[in-house]
């Protein structure tokens, strides 16, 4: 998506020695359409009535290392009641010994949360943060966003 290409250009112009991961979501809430693109980000989790699945945005490099100006994206349509969870590596690493184990554990904890918690984005975020553990600040950032579709 072009917004990540713009961020790539900005980063290469202003901070050429740095890199960053990112995810961009463009949401049409009325139609429940979601367009996602990422630059080496953790895969978002989509909670549905059937469980929780990763939404693979791309296998892109981080910003500052992209070989093209546009990161590939994916589009999907959520059902009523679905919840999209976006999170950073800092949260995933609190769930497991390594990044992939942490991502899988985060997805499992979200899927196994009581139904009333899964359907309430605020309560779901509180639940995930409580289950992640670790009161001390980690080496990486920790960002969590959950959005429910009506």
UniProtKB/TrEMBL annotation:
Gene3D superfamilies: PPM-type phosphatase domain. Transmembrane segments: none annotated. GO terms for molecular function: phosphatase activity. Residues 3-149 form the PPM-type phosphatase domain. InterPro entries: Bact_Sigma-Reg, PPM-type-like_dom_sf, PPM-type_phosphatase-like_dom. Keywords: Hydrolase. This is Putative serine/threonine protein phosphatase.
């Amino acid at each position: 998506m072009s917004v990540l290409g713009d961020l790539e250009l900005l980063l290469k112009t202003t901070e050429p020695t740095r890199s960053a991961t990112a995810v961009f979501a463009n949401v049409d809430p009325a139609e429940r359409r979601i367009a996602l693109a990422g630059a080496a980000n953790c895969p978002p989790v989509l909670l549905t009535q059937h469980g929780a699945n990763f939404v693979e945005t791309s296998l892109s490099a981080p910003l500052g290392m992209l070989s093209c100006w546009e990161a590939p994206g994916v589009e999907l349509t959520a059902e009523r009641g679905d919840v999209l969870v976006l999170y950073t590596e800092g949260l995933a690493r609190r769930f497991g010994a390594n990044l992939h184990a942490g991502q899988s554990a985060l997805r499992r904890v979200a899927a196994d949360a009581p139904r009333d918690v899964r359907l309430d984005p605020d309560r779901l975020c509180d639940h995930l943060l409580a289950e992640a553990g670790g009161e001390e600040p980690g080496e990486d950032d920790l960002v969590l966003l959950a959005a429910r579709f009506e």
